């Protein structure tokens, strides 16, 4: 079945960077956009941005502009999301999700989530 | 602040019907979807395109839209429906996505 498998949990110090991976399987990787969503402890879902695996174009919400970079590797069907200049407020579970469009916009499936802890 | 507004918490008696709403101007122009999330798990879509139910989702889940308000209705709520529910759509520019703040559903 269609699956997104994310990399494991990370613990980082403030000011460092973290790179989370999301490996897709059982579908044509370049046909579907991948979105990143994060969830701080006890909080709601927050949309971060999207990457088009076909060409690599990206769009980020303003909050993360300049601090988040999304890339992809078509040879391994993997999308990466890097957050730089980490601060404690970036402690969250980060999810990738495949976008289904034409004509509707929805996310399915989601990755299992990657916990990133930022602590000194 | 979110461009999609949800009530923070709703409760329903076992077997009764509950409606969870999501309000936002972008819903007049773009489709909404609903996601169910249980503690420690990734979200799962329960409604897409305002009214469509993916395969595998029980038919007690239904969606509707009226003006700028999308609704998720659970008819005959079960204990396993207790979860957080989030709506999602595009923002007012149409370029980005936005989630509602989420509604915690308690089944009594």
Describe the protein in words.
The complex is a heterodimer of chains A (120) and B (108). Helix content of chain A is 0%, strand content 52%. Chain A is mainly beta and 120 residues long. In chain A, the strands form two sheets. In chain A, strands 2, 4, 5, 6, 9, 10 and 11 form a seven-stranded mixed β-sheet that branches. In chain A, strands 1-3-8-7 form a four-stranded antiparallel β-sheet, with no helix packed on it. Chain A starts with a strand and ends with a strand. In chain A, 36% of the residues are buried. The model of chain A has no long low-confidence stretch (mean pLDDT 96). Chain B is an all-beta fold. Chain B is built from no helices and ten strands. Chain B starts with a strand and ends with a strand. Chains A and B meet through strand 5, strand 9 and strand 10 of A and strand 4, strand 8 and strand 9 of B.
Provide a short characterization of the protein structure.
The complex is a heterodimer of chains A (120) and B (108). Chain A has 120 residues and is mainly β.
């Amino acid at each position: 079945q269609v699956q997104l498998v994310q990399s494991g949990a990370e613990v980082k110090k403030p000011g460092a960077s973290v790179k989370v991976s999301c490996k897709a399987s059982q579908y044509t990787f370049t046909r579907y956009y991948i979105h990143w969503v994060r969830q701080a402890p006890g909080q709601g879902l927050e949309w971060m941005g999207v990457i088009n695996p076909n060409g690599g174009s990206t769009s980020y919400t303003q909050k993360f502009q300049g601090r988040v970079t999304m890339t992809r590797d078509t040879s391994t069907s993997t999308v990466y999301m890097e957050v730089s200049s980490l601060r404690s407020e970036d402690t969250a579970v980060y999810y990738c999700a495949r976008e289904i469009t034409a004509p509707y916009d929805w996310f399915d499936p989601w990755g299992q989530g990657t916990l990133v802890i930022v602590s000194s | 602040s979110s461009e999609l507004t949800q009530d923070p918490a709703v409760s329903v008696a076992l077997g009764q019907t509950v409606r969870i709403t999501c309000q936002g101007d972008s819903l007049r122009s773009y489709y909404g979807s609903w996601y169910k999330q249980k503690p420690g798990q990734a979200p799962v879509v329960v409604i897409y395109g305002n009214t469509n139910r993916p395969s595998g989702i029980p038919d007690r889940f239904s969606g509707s839209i009226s003006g700028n308000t999308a609704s998720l209705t659970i008819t005959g709520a079960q204990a396993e429906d207790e979860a957080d529910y989030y709506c999602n759509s595009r923002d007012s520019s149409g370029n980005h996505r936005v989630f509602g703040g989420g509604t915690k559903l308690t089944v009594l």
